[in-house]
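Following up on my earlier message about tryptophan. Here are the inputs again, as you asked, copied directly from the submission form:
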Amino acid sequence: MTRILTGDTPTGRLHLGHFVGSLENRIALQHQHETFVLVANIHALTTRAADPAAIRRDTLEIVRDQLAAGIDPERATFVVQSEIPAIAELTILFAMLLPFSRVMRNPTLKAEIISKQLGDHYSFGFPLYAVGQCADILAFRADLVPVGEDQAAHIEMTREVARRFAQLYGDVFPVPEPLFGRVPRLPGLDGVEKMSKSRGNAIFLSDSADDIRKKVARITTGRQSPTDPGDPTNVLFEYARAFIRDEAHVRDLADRYARGDNLGDGEVKRQVAAAIDALVAPMRERRAQLTDARIVEILHEHTRRANAVAADTLAKAKDAMRLAF
Ligand code: TRP
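Thanks, got it. Here's what our run produced:
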């Protein structure tokens, strides 16, 4: 059976970018494969060490979001990173296998230093988190990692660690493959940056029908009239293609839009907002049933399951490295 591990840093509620990038794949794959869903609450400390209460709240919230979206706690296992000591131990061991300069060349880290304006003020733990991500994946000996395209560099580094470990000490870890989502990079409402909470351009899985309508209405395309030829690759149509599931209908809309065949932005927005609401409405309902107490109960049980797997991997790794006495 293929083993899957993926996860998110708890920096806020999940949005549509998370859904099409990875969450949708997790929900589908949990039925055929052994699935682990990590909440990277230690990684959250790289930028929010001063706000532990917010990280704790977001950790519960991200689990709630995923249960509401269709992750089945009887099938998939949630992994709260801070509760799995084997991940921390593997992080140190893997840090020895990667040249420092290699870690610092990781393009995702470099992009984050710029986008989060970290300059040279980031913690030692900031670049270390990328090594930690290798440990997250390899601790569960995952074969497949469903992620958004922005995580590709981390998966590549994980593959290097797995190969290097095999060269030096023997075969303990599979070399994992990334699995990119149906929409690898969903733009935000601004149509420029990718969708993200920090840029204020996101539609959240927990948004109300009214929020969704208002947010979609905010999209600007620069088009003047329904009879102007429109650009069917603009944000609005990226959303239409991502969320209106009748492909023939979307093709027809795009044709009419491009020709200026009396199809206004307002009508496309109405259809896009309705499709998004149809996707998230059942999530809103399930979310309302999920108390914090129930979530904590699930996490306690899942932590036992996850630790059994990760501790076994660590024992194998230490054995291979002649570190076991
Ligand atoms: N870095 C990922 C993100 O911010 C979260 C993450 C941590 C992750 N560990 C992982 C994703 C392991 C996949 C596999 O989205």
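One observation from looking it over: The radius of gyration is 21 Å. Hope that helps, and feel free to reply on this thread.
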